[in-house]
Amino acid sequence: MQVLSVTPEIFPLIKTGGLADVTGALPAALAGLGVATRSLVPGYPVVMNALKKKKTVHHYPALQGGKAALHSAEIAGLDMLVLDAPHLFDRPGGPYGDVTGADWQDNWRRFAALGRVGADIAAGVVKDYRPDIVHAHDWQSAMTLAYMRYGEAADVPSVMTVHNLAFQGQFGASIFAGLGLPQQAMALDGVEYYGGVGFLKAGLQAAWAITTVSPTYAQEIRTPAFGMGLDGLINLRSPDLYGIVNGIDDDIWNPETDSHLAATYTSKSLKGRKANKRAIEERMTLDRDDGPIYCVVSRLTWQKGIDILSTIIDPVVASGARLAILGSGDAGLEGALLAAAARHRGRVGVVIGYDEGLSHLLQGGADGILIPSRFEPCGLTQLYGLRYGCVPIVARTGGLADTVIDANEAAVAAGVATGFQFAPEDAGAFHHAISRANALHAEPAVWAAIQKQGMKSDISWDRSAQKYAALYRMLLSKRDA
Ligand code: ADP
């Protein structure tokens, strides 16, 4: 089976969030199940620079205002099709905006082009290649499915995966003329969205199946509180809606081999974690003691509940715990955390920035990881925490609810607890969860049992890949029915 994955990000080349981890890891996991994946990605500078041996498989004399080419290449073990369109993608800054973070004004053009090319590939524009399934990720890829629906590849089964419904790709009605879609597409059951054009909306409407990255989030997005304006449509499409939890990349996230750690360790012996804890204390200028260190590795945003965290730092510090926080994001939240670090020298360490190595060290040495997200489609950091024996303390929402087993008395007695959950989403409940963690941390045997149980959780890509492969097969039988 041949799957074309269309994605704006792919690890290890270009990553702003969990989406890249998924699109980077799924191909290898699917390969073992008889599913061959080719990934169509924009030719950002980092991608073009990684292109060594390439074969040009198609030329566009004019694509959204300029010449473009499609190259086939293997990069980092991934089978890729790269959309080389310098007028759209050859620019400094991030994949979606300039160095200040301001969105590129022509994002609609950039990702309409990606979608157009995805649909062309589905229709057979690349010689000797015809995908059986097209799998689009997030709004940046969603127009692929709209172009397929109104073009020649309407009979190719498609999957739309929503990694985060908060990002929808909404544009004014005036861009419609530039999309090159038939007029009938500008309709309620097409790409039209609240009077403008909605890219994700168009993909949700056109997809044969919709997936999101956890069963709980799949249910949550059917409600107004989580649906972000799309709950009506998602409810209509609920017979075709699936929740599949992400896995993690075992080669990159493995405490037995991780070169970012001061000391590696196994689930049998967690001894090495101590050296990592000492390394964290040094790196984040924290006092040295045996009380718990709770870490945060996160975008510092409202979604991630960082404002809630900042309101309870004082009582958490008073309880004897230390905090090691790595992240970047909203300036106000960064400022609040830095102020807390200044207030609590030796007890609260804050590093503002993106640091892959430090994120590994924190998972490998901190006692727990705090994840107070207001919504969390899947979440990866709690999965890394489980794998590393860094006990997750999480809001009971989305993928966090699906992957962490709360250490209530019954779960502890049964030996199945892997972390702590709290609800509702407020400072009181969050603080209470941390207090429960403190209490169990003071009982080393209980804490070690929770850590080891978490490390046993099956969070491999194999499990998720089996579910995607089953979904693909179901769609093929629907096509053939
Ligand atoms: P989201 O995609 O919503 O940001 P996820 O938990 O799904 O949240 O994925 C976040 C990914 O980004 C994880 O791999 C996490 O380790 C990483 N990450 C987030 N912030 C940082 C940071 N400041 N430094 C290093 N890695 C980070």
TrEMBL record:
Glycosyl transferase family domain segment(s): 287-437
Gene3D superfamilies referenced in this protein's UniProt entry, alphabetically: Glycogen Phosphorylase B
Pathway noted in the entry: Glycan biosynthesis; glycogen biosynthesis
Any GO molecular function: alpha-1,4-glucan glucosyltransferase (ADP-glucose donor) activity
Keywords for the protein's UniProt record, in alphabetical order: Glycogen biosynthesis, Glycosyltransferase, Transferase
Record field: catalytic activity: [(1->4)-alpha-D-glucosyl](n) + ADP-alpha-D-glucose = [(1->4)-alpha-D-glucosyl](n+1) + ADP + H(+)
Binding site for ADP-alpha-D-glucose: K15
NCBIfam families in the cross-refs: glgA (TIGR02095), PRK00654.1-2 (NF001899)
Record protein name field: Glycogen synthase
Record organism: Aminobacter ciceronei
